[in-house]
Amino acid sequence: MVDMNKFKVPAVPKEENTSLVKKLINLIDSLMTKVRSLTDEVNQLKDAINVLKEEKKRPKFKASKMDDLAGKKDKRDPNTEEKRPGSKKKSKTEEIKIHAEKTIKPDQDIPKGSLFKGHHMYTVQGLKIESYNTLYRLERWQTPDGKWLKGVLPDSVAGTHFSFELIAYILYQHYQCQVTQPLLLEQLLEYGVQISSGQINRILNEGKESFHDEKEDILHMGLRSSKYVTVDDTGTRHKGKNGYVTNISSEHFAWFESSNNKTRINFLELLNTGETSYIINEDSISLMINQKLGQTIIHQLICHPKQQFKHKKEWEAHLKCLGITKKRQCRIATESALYSGILQHDFMKNIVIVSDDAGQFNVLLHALCWVHTERLIHKLISTNESHRKTMEQVRDKIWTLYADLKQYKIFPTNTLKEAIISQFDTIFTQVTPFKILNSLLSRIYNNKDELLLVLQHPEIPLHTNASEGDIREYVKKMKISGGTRSTLGQKSRDTFASIKKTCRKLGISFWNYLLDRLSFSHNIQPLHFYIQQRSAPS
Known about the structure:
This protein is an alpha/beta fold. Helix content is about 50%, strand content about 10%.
């Protein structure tokens, strides 16, 4: 069988390169692309079958080298720092806290007259892992009038028979280190902790309302204080069924929410930050007209005396009352009403959404990821040497343009801006001998405004790598344990993933955060405070 990925059309001599030969080569290119598409579809169907058999095996994707190659061409990028020759090496142990000291004398007898020359310091790091149990003796007294007085447990242990350090350890091992509940139970029993699987499950999922509230504050402040967010989604498993998780991130926070679908309505509901409202006004009507919703339906929505709804059930009942029941009509009306609700928050009017061109994220000011755009060309199959060279030339020009965009983000000037626009037009309007490549270049050119939005907003990233890195944890989690089984488990997974990733971006130890919250010390401020602080202009 011929390997389609390695198949190449032999070079055609110039004198034989007739019009018919050119058409045949283009036909071969089209067929090769179609075969590749069908092969991918077959692999997806095989994956779906494997999921049903509980034998899913994820395909391997090569990482994009666009940034690396652009970096080689961009010699002016000051972010590339090299270690200064001869710089002093920092000691790895100079900031370590010493808990015990031991002095060791030489094994040999020390001759008389020898001079003591101090000590040679040798630091050994260690970790003590053992059970540590405390018995609280709560004194009970009876007063002369018959009342009872009893000692009160510390808040950190009240209502549970486990110390806050042990609870923090369980949360850290599961949510940070990806240790499954059965392995965590086995581990704790070997350490001498008397605990059951049910108790571990309750510690992981129950009584976490304060953490859930902090998670919602993260998104609200993140959107309020950020000039942009990168977004992405991926598949998850919940109660044995396929679902999705959406990620919203910036350089100062990361936030996750699981759902049963990945529609634009779902994304708009997430952007409402817990204050969902459906509003009929000029913005929503304009969006309905652009999506070609029927004039009769628009007129019904405009003429109704009630124009604002705060609950999903209330809005759905309103549509049903007006006789708007068709799926497309409901979708457009709901998206438009949610969009107007988002714009009621002034801070949402100027925020930029950077995505990988998934349709559900195309709202508000929308920018596209350059890495995903370049990947479209990278995945094309060239069937002859001429087409391969053409592809390489086009990709080389894109890398050069990408390097200039990186430079523009650092030093934005009108001269460079005009040069980049000119480069973009030249690259994506050119006509090459590779017909399929021409179609793809034309398609990318149609996204010019979204790809070059960085020229108006130099602060936004050129890719969605941050979101892809943040959300990768869910893929690993699904490989390890499959998914969640309870609603509380799903909610806790999203909450602690959001808090953990946000702590990492803020430079806060997730372990110290857990100890602080579970001990009720509150020496660490609410995370939304640090997000606001970091996002404030210097």
